[in-house]
Design a protein that fits this description.
159 residues; alpha/beta; Trna Endonuclease, Chain: A, domain 1; six-stranded mixed beta sheet; 5 helices
Length: 159
């Protein structure tokens, strides 16, 4: 569901659809191996759907309302997820199927934080783990890079 407040911007309010079962989505796309998935143009969308399902599972497991938002405006600013947290705070989350994160990936998060300075509690780029590279925690000042496994751990912390 799109997230909107009065930002003084023209927002795009069309809904997004996520596949809750990435295995079924891969089957329907004809992807039968990890190698095929790596080459697939759908890898990013499938990873985003996987992150969405993990957010919703965490909310459900903690007895919270299932709320998942995204942000997109007509100027092209898009943030994959705005995740409600306690005390009316939000986590701004970008899901990237890459195993190597780069500072420019934080740009949409930083732009949206300027519009939500009091609401944005945490800015995160969630990515796939690379077995051969060191984990990067700080992507750029104010933005964290977490592999998907660490992101799930953080989601499930009570506070």
């Amino acid at each position: 569901m799109p997230y909107f407040e009065n930002f003084g911007k023209r927002l795009i309010k069309s809904p997004k659809v996520y596949w809750g079962d990435s295995g079924l989505a891969c089957y329907l796309l004809g992807l039968t191996s990890a190698a095929e998935l790596e080459r697939s143009p759908f890898l990013g969308a499938l990873f985003e759907g996987f992150v969405a399902s993990e957010i919703l599972k965490s909310q459900s497991n903690h007895g919270m309302r299932k709320e998942l938002y995204y942000f997109r405006d007509q100027q092209g600013l898009e943030v994959d997820f705005l995740v409600p947290r306690p005390n009316a705070r939000l986590w701004l989350v970008e899901a990237k199927a890459t195993k190597t994160v780069r500072p420019p990936m934080a740009s949409p998060l930083l732009s949206l934080r300027r519009a939500l300075p009091k609401r944005s509690a945490r800015l995160l780029v969630v990515h796939r783990r690379s077995p051969s590279q060191l984990t990067t925690a700080a992507l750029t000042p104010g933005v964290e890079a977490l592999d998907v496994e660490r992101f799930v751990v953080e989601l499930n912390r009570t506070k």
